[in-house]
Amino acid sequence: MPETRHHCAQPEQTLLLGHAERTAEHAHTRGHLVYPATGVLSLVTATGSWIAPPNRVVWIPGGAGHQHRAHGVTDMRVVFLSSELAEPLPTRPAVLVVTPLARAALLALTSSDQRSPAAVDRLRHVVVDDLSVAPEQPLHLPEPRDDRLRAVARRVADDLTGSATLAELGREVGAAERTLSRLFHAETGMGFRQWRTQLRVHRALLLLSDGMPVIDVAAACGWANPSAFIEAFTLLVGQSPGRYQRSSRLSPSDG
């Protein structure tokens, strides 16, 4: 992955991205937190993609190549951390829960208000203290490496309403079901059914951020029963599709 290193004099950044706007692939020397105060962000790396709605924050360790994509107009807040301060956080990219306290501190850090270096340092510590005990969220969609697995992933992504079994998909790509099952576990850390559910929820997050009604999102992402969609979505995202859709439209000044 191409890599450009950035050395910013200002440790905090606020970027407004238009719908579907992408950043170039890049990496930062320091680890940083990326918080979508409004909208939804995708983080894409060589190993997969992450989705962050406004109740989540993405942690990206220093040196990790990545790209962002906005879904809806997205107010992206970036807070850089020293290696010492970031020590309690994961050593790989991760999506973490944002509590009201961490959200308030992130917004304060990236506001235009003038604060002393000591006050800024205290706010950074509040964020890290809160996030270091926050559960890591399963909003990561690993990218398969095996060519056969990639072909299966493309077929599923192209038709989320399809119900083909792994055996049927295997016949299309010339691989046995047992082989594909083993590869899914080895390369993504999850089984095929779990991976497909994760993919469908990822797509649902984006459609909901575009304003599509919940019942239509359920159908578009392969759920015949809206109740089953709501249950699967809530389990992964931590809130119902309706509540998520409302929260993704909050302004930073909203509670």
TrEMBL record:
Entry annotated with the keyword Transcription: yes
Residues of the HTH araC/xylS-type domain: 150-247
Keywords: Transcription, Transcription regulation
Superkingdom to which the source organism belongs: Bacteria
InterPro entries cross-referenced by the UniProt entry: Homeodomain-like_sf, HTH_AraC, RmlC-like_jellyroll, RmlC_Cupin_sf
UniProt keyword annotation of Cell inner membrane present: no
SUPFAM superfamilies: Homeodomain-like, RmlC-like cupins
Protein name (Swiss-Prot/TrEMBL): AraC-like DNA-binding protein
The species this protein was found in: Kineosporia succinea
